[in-house]
Amino acid sequence: MNVTEFVLLGLTHTREAQVVLFVLFFLFYVMILVGNFLIIATIKTSSCLNSPMYFLLCNLSFIDVCYSSVTSPRMLVDLLSQRMTISFNGCMAQLFFLHFVGAAEMFLLTVMAYDRYVAICRPLHYMTVMNRSVCCLLVAACWMGGFIHSIVQMLLTIQLPFCGPNQIDNYFCDVPPVIRLACIDIYVIELLMISNSGLISLMCFLVLVGSYTVILVTIQFYFTEGRWKALSTCASHITVVSLFFGPCIFIYLRPSSNLSADKGISVIYTILTPMLNPLIYTFRNKEVKSSMRKLWRQHVFPVFGDCGGLDKGEPPEVKS
C-alpha cells in the first residue's frame, strides 16, 4: 500500500515547549517579513540605492521571504496542532520549493561575493562589468539554476516507492529524511543526492571563501582609509554565509542518518539565516539607514530633500 500522507514529528513533543517555540518562531518569522519587505521598499523607492549591490540585496531579501515562507507557516501551524500530517503531494511540493529557493539563494550569495570582488579589486571596471543587464542575467541564472537543481531532487524522490512507515523526524519535508522511508535500497539515490545538493553547497561555499579572501587581502594591502570598517563588514558577511552553508554542507554532503540533531541544525538555515541577512547585509549600511529614515519621513512630510551622497556612476564602497 502506497503512503498517502506523512506524519511530521516536529521539533518537540512537549506541549509547553511547543508553545514557547511557537511564540519564538512566530516573532522570528515576523522579523523576517518586516525586515526584508522594508529593505525591498526602501531600495525600490530610493533613487540613492540604484547600484548593482543594492539590486542584488533587494533580490536577496525577496528570496529570504520566499525561503522562510516555505517552512515557517506550516511549522507554526503544526506547533499548535495535536497531529502534524502532510499529504504526499504537499510534501513533494514543499521539498521542491525548499530546494528551488534555497539553491537560488546559494547562487545569489555567490554572485554577491563576485560583485564585492569586482567593486573592491577592479573598481575602474565595476560599472562596466556589473551593469544592470548583467545583474539581471545573473539573477535569472540563479533562479534557473535553483529550478534545475530542485527538479532533479524532486524526481529522485518522487519515483521512490513508499509503503510505510510514514513518520518524518523533522518539521518539514526534505530529501534526506523522506528518502529514508523508501521501501528500496537508497544507496544510489544517496550518492546522487550528495553529488547534487552536497557538492553544490560545497562549491558555492568555496567560491565565496575564495572571493572574500581575495577581498580581505586587497583591503589589507591597498586600502588604508575605512580598512577596519571594510574588514568588519566582510567578516560579518562571512559569518552569515557560514551559518547558511555550514549546516547545508553538513546535512547534504553525507549519507542520510537518523540523527535527531539534523532538524535542530535545519533551524539555522531555514529561519535564523533569513532573519540575520537583513541585519548583516543591509541595516548596518549607512546609505540604507539614511534612505529608510527618508522613506519614513515621506509619509509625514509630502516634500523632502534630495538624497545626495551616493553617485550613480561610482562603485559602492564596502561599508558597515
Which features would summarize this protein structure in a list?
320 residues, mainly alpha, Rhopdopsin 7-helix transmembrane proteins, 3-stranded mixed sheet, 3 strands, 3% strand, globular, Olfactory_Receptors, GPCR_Rhodpsn
The ordered H/E elements are EHHEHHHEHHHHH
- Annotation, overall tally of beta strands: 3
Write down the overall mean pLDDT: 82
How many domains? 1
Helix content: over 70%
What share of the residues does DSSP label as strand, in percent?
under 5%
Which class in CATH terms?
Mainly Alpha
Total helix count?
A: 10
Query: Given the helix and strand composition, which structural class is it?
Result: mainly alpha
State the low-pLDDT regions, or none. 303-316
User: Rg from C-alpha positions?
Assistant: 21 Å
CATH topology (level 3) name = Rhopdopsin 7-helix transmembrane proteins
Spatial order of the strands forming the largest sheet: 2-1-3
Keywords: Cell membrane, G-protein coupled receptor, Membrane, Olfaction, Receptor, Sensory transduction, Transducer, Transmembrane, Transmembrane helix
GO molecular function: G protein-coupled receptor activity; olfactory receptor activity
Main location: membrane
Family: Belongs to the G-protein coupled receptor 1 family.
